[in-house]
Amino acid sequence: MAGASPDPSLYNEDLAPIPFARRDWSWLNMATVWMGMVHNIVVYEAAAGLMALGFSAWECMEVVAVAYVVLFLAMWFNARAGTRYGIPFCVLIRSAFGPAGAQLPVLLRGFCAIFWFSVQAFAATQAVDAVIGTVWPAWNAASLHILGMSAHMWGAAVLVWALHAWVMGHGVSRIRNFELVAGPLVILIGLFATIWALNVAHGPGPLFAVPSRLHGMAFVGAFASGVTGMIGMWATFAVNIPDLSRFVRSERDQVLGQAIGLPVTALVFTPMAIITTSATIILFGRPIWNPVDLLLALHHPLITVFGGAVIVLATLSVNTVANIVPACYDLINLAPRRLNFDRAGPLVMALGLLFAPWLWFNEASSIFQALGIISGLLGPVTGIMLADFFVIRRQSLDVPALYQRHGRYGGQHGWHMPGLIAFVIGGIVAALGEIVPALSALNAVAWFVGVAVGGAIYTALAWKSERRAVTDAGLQPQ
Where would you find the membrane-spanning parts of this chain (predicted)? Predict the structure, then answer.
């Protein structure tokens, strides 16, 4: 940025490129960050969803392996620009959408991040409420309902939100230290739980003996749906991985860290969930996939307290990095003159509370369907970002121009039309399965369709417009 004059409406210290001298995340930091994110209640229960589709336990492992390898590849390539230039997603996306047009995918990503923060935080609230209620039964006596939630649940919510605020108060660069402890610790506790389950079940347990109910084309369709569903949990993070990779000191560190932390950790964690749940069938006669329900069913105060603390730790780990940090950058991008990271964090948590997850958490199928469509729109964004950086820009960006409204990436009054057109068309095609019942089969590959259509259309439209803009401005091709 030396010698450049960035537009104040597009620039502040939190959005500025991080110089190489200040990038101190190693492969270990990147790996432990992903360890902390992969271990959460939603991912734990995902195995139940796969088995409900008719897969055997071993087939669940195959679905997880394919999904997380695809995710790793998408994040590996999309993280490259963050590592090379030290810029976050909300700045990088200006290259493909223009400084004004970039606000559209940024707002979508920010909405999804705050929503998922709300979901995860309320899941942790239930765990805290269960723990305190078990240790101190008088806690449950505070049953007065306020705005649709009991007083004791409000007390638990205050504690959970305060814990998030405490972690965020240490700043984004120090979050790596928290994840360095949280990620491995959660997997260590999961290992202890698995050893306990193996002892109870005298082996992997009955779930591993359940045969597959899917064969032929039914298996193929369900496999595609399962892979897309697993990807859907992290599709939003596939676009904003530069928010983390900008802190990593080298390309080798980000690739190695993500390889260990993402597919490898997921393949370790999934059988842990299945084995532990297998033990619950022997103990209680039914599978218990929700960790909070399992803690309550065990009726052991010490285990409930310890297990609840682990659930809260896992939630803090995933929520901080996967939801709060991206949402902070997205809000800062909207108003860089007024917001910085310290101010954006409390705002994200306040907006998460306004989602009022306690009002719909147990009957949320329609809301999650709507959120799935919104998240699916980020498939085309992933394709557009990859096409822009690797095909159109050839991995070379004019970084100072990303902070200016007029210039190489300015487009038409701040709107780069190839990106917007590709985004709209890609999003419509990816959502056709939800809109047109006859095309519901597309839902099984919606994310892949969105990535392919968005990337292909953007490449076709941007190739000519970029060459024309370069010629008219007398600039050197990128």
Answer: 33-53, 60-79, 85-107, 114-139, 151-168, 180-198, 218-239, 260-285, 305-332, 344-361, 367-392, 413-432, 444-463
